[in-house]
Amino acid sequence: MSGAVAQAGQEARLTGTGIHKSFGALPVLNGIDFSLTSNEAVGIIGPNGAGKSTLLGVLVAPPVSRRARSSSTAMT
Question: Which is one Pfam family of this protein (predicted)?
Answer without folding.
Answer: ABC_tran
